[in-house]
Amino acid sequence: MATNHLTIDCAECAYDGTPTCDDCMVTFLCSRREGEAVVIDLEEARAVRLIGESGLTPPLRHEVRRQDHG
Predict the structure, then answer these.
(1) Does the predicted TM-score (pTM) go above 0.85?
(2) CB contact set of 27 (below 8 Å; sequence gap of 6+)
């Protein structure tokens, strides 16, 4: 079943705690508590992407960490 929302959980992001995190749109726009995810729908995700691409805010830099299978 396909979902029609995007969940951004900084704890799952490959850039959490790095300088890239400091320049992320989520960090820029949201004042969140530790462990709190940001959930947006697809229309909002498109708007977030366009705002970042236009240079009005830092771009969304969230990328889910890859699981080690070793």
Answers:
(1) no
(2) 10, 21, 58
